[in-house]
Design a protein that fits this description.
mainly alpha, 114 residues, 4 helices, elongated, 68% helix
């Protein structure tokens, strides 16, 4: 049995990334199963399913940690923190390369050659 999307992992619903992760999980699972079938291997073997798990682990963990970080960042109610947060976000807005990487990752594109 292979799990994908919300059945495989939990993520804060912030920014609706659960659907994107689920679609990427399904795509990766289909690719791994297809490769196994073409090679004459068992599609439900632990080896095959382990490939799927390893393939998705880093991207899913990065997205989970990112969404948790944003939740904590925007949920913080400490006095003066909103000014610090606004300053940080304005600095991020000025960093076009980093901003583009974050947007690409949120859209489901793999980052940094992973």
């Amino acid at each position: 049995m292979a799990l994908v999307g919300d059945a495989a992992h939990t993520i804060h619903p912030l920014a609706g990334q659960g659907v994107n992760i689920g679609l990427l999980d399904a795509q990766a699972l289909a690719e791994v199963v297809n490769q196994a079938a073409q090679s004459g291997r068992q599609i439900g073997s632990l080896h095959t399913l382990g490939k799927y798990q390893r393939r998705r682990r880093a991207d899913n963990l990065l997205m989970q940690l990112s969404m948790d970080g944003f939740h904590r960042l925007f949920g913080c109610q400490l006095p003066g923190f909103s000014k610090l947060r606004s300053f940080g976000m304005s600095q991020l807005h000025k960093q076009q390369t980093l901003k583009n990487l974050l947007i690409q990752h949120a859209a489901g594109h793999r980052m940094l050659g992973s």
